[in-house]
Amino acid sequence: MLKLIGVVLFAVAFAFVESSVVVYLRALYYPEGFQFPLKVLSGHHLAVELAREGATIVMLATVGMVAGVTRWERFAYFLIAFGVWDIFYYVWLKVAIGWPASIFDWDILFLIPVPWIGPVIAPVLVSVLMIVAGFLILHRDHHHGVFRVPLKVWITALAGTAVILLSFMIDTAATLEVQPPKPYRYELLAAGIALYLVAMVMAFRQKRT
């Protein structure tokens, strides 16, 4: 339990660090408030931002590696850290600058390999699923022994990931040509989440070892 508390506290604190950087970026590029179409970052700022995003993933993965003992524990702690960090990123932005006004406000979600965009509710829902999956993995690993994930589960989960990423990156006119975004493809988000849920059911309904 102490490890879990530590991972969660790290994720909450790290989310504040992440959100504070975005506060400064928005003050610089969106002084009248964040809105689409997107502003193009200067070459130096873009390079730093890409490096920061890469470092963010490394830090969250490292927390999982340090907190976990088995490979599944490490993966579970990473999922929990990522999900908590992503949710509290928006919590801290709300506290700092009053944004988002709604969970349906659009945001830049990530920049690698191309910008990801979508309403706040999309990454938050994915993060909730990551947290739930992380807790289920920890429970199974601690109380019922290591479980094996069949290939069909991985394929289903990867398909869900691909569909959700497509929903974030499909509007290249908005992300690469700085045009107003088209309506978000909620059907892709729903399909991806459904695939995740199917994968979770298949994984956690297996016989215990």
Write a structural description:
This protein is mostly helical. It has one domain (2-204). It has seven helices and two strands, in the order H-H-H-E-E-H-H-H-H. Strands 1-2 form a two-stranded antiparallel sheet. Helix 1 runs antiparallel to helix 2 (43-67), helix 4 packs parallel to helix 7 (186-204) and helix 5 packs antiparallel against helix 7. It is globular.
Spatial arrangement of strands, main beta sheet? 1-2
Shape: globular
In terms of DSSP E residues, the strand content is: under 5%
Structure annotation, total helices: 7
Q: What separation lies between the terminal Cα atoms?
A: 23 Å
Task: Average the pLDDT over all residues and give the rounded result.
Answer: 92
What structural class do helix, strand and pairing data support? mainly alpha
In short:
With 209 residues, this protein is mainly alpha-helical. The protein has one domain. The model has no long low-confidence stretch (mean pLDDT 92).
Topology at a glance:
Layout: H1 2-29, H2 43-67, H3 71-97, E1 106-110, E2 116-119, H4 121-143, H5 151-169, H6 172-176, H7 186-204
Antiparallel strand pairs: 1-2
Quick tags:
209 residues; mainly alpha; two-stranded antiparallel sheet; 7 helices
